[in-house]
Amino acid sequence: MEIANKDKFEIKVQKAVAYANFRDFFRNKSTFVYISGLFALSGCDTLFTPPQKVLCDRYPQQCAALGDSAWCQHHKHEVLTRFAEAQQDVAQPKLARRQFRELQALRELEQCLSHELRNNSLQLNSKQDISASLSHTRQWLAKSEQSSARSTQAPLLFYRWRYLQDRDAAAMLVNTLRAKTKLDSFEQSMLGQLYVFQRQDEQALVALHHALQQPPRDKKTLAEIFATLHVIYAGHEKWLQSYQWGYLANQYGAGLNLSLIREQLKKQQIYQHSAEKAAETLLAQILEGEYHAPL
Fold first, then answer.
1. What is the mean pLDDT of residues 124-136?
2. Which of the four, 44, 51, 157, 256, has the lowest number of CB atoms within 10 Å?
3. How far apart are CA 96 and CA 148, in angstroms?
4. What would the pLDDT profile of 186-197 be if each residue is shown by its tens digit?
5. Buried b vs exposed e over 93-105: b needs ≥16 C-beta within 10 Å?
6. 214 DSSP 8-state letter
7. 28 vs 22, 32, 110, CA distance in Å?
8. What single Pfam family name could you report for this chain, choosing any that match (predicted)?
9. DSSP letters along 228-270, please?
């Protein structure tokens, strides 16, 4: 009887940890660094991004706005890349999607600089440089958020819901997405995340699995889909599926803690290596456009 109660307790702990991870993943997305060794894209949509020097020569005002500190260079490059992409798109909703990624990159840079600023071993002049960059980044972020505050485009509604906890934006987003006859992978991912927060897991699974049947050009979107599936399956105590999707999310830098799920796999006598091989097969199917939703 004690063993059974212990197992039930561990399951409850696993659920709590999984949903805590999920909450952090979507409410504090900037805590995760996306580095995909497989694609060497660092979360970007394209196979090539100009070096930072080229971007700074092209957009000196924006480069100066990020400050002169030597810290968080990867995140600064990401911000400039996203800004440059947004300048190339004039048509909605593609522009709104670029603007969403620019805002997201600014938030990731802000989090990185804030983390560095808490390093007590840094010298005063280094802290001053970081503080100045952080101030510039926050100014840019605030200005960008203000300029997109009235947008009714889905990506920017999604941003306001996810990062600013704007419930009105969430309601508008659901109506916008439901009114469309066909959704791409990014839109399906947005809808799936909304469904999870509305405790509509079945609808979320349909949206997310359908998203994986479409070309995953945006690697960040792909990581978000994997992480969301990981959490849904953990909440339903489907440990194998949860581990597989969590494993794939971590291949894209999601940073999920899978240790408790590994313990559940051991109890079910499921080998971790086998689960990972099966997950890699799923990934190959997704990338080759041969994935079929199990629904």
1. 88
2. 51
3. 9
4. 899 999 998 888
5. bebbbbbbbbbbb
6. S
7. 10, 8, 11
8. DUF2989
9. HHHHHHHHTT-HHHHHHHHHHHHHTT-----HHHHHHHHHTT-
